Amino acid sequence: MNKISQRRVVIGDVHGHYEGLMLLLEAIAPASEDQVYFLGDLIDRGPKSAEVVEFVKENDYPCLLGNHEMMLLNIMTSKNVASSYMQTWLYSGGQATIASYQSATIPKKHLDWFESLPTYLDLGDFWLAHAGVDPKKTLQEQTSEQLCWIRDEFHQIQQPYFADKLIIVGHTITFTLPGVPPGNLAQGQGWLDIDTGAYHPRSGWLTGLDITNKLVHQANVFSKAVRTLAWDEVITIVQPQEFVGSRRHRN
Question: What is the C-alpha to C-alpha distance for residues 121 and 139, in angstroms, rounded to an integer?
Answer without folding.
Answer: 12
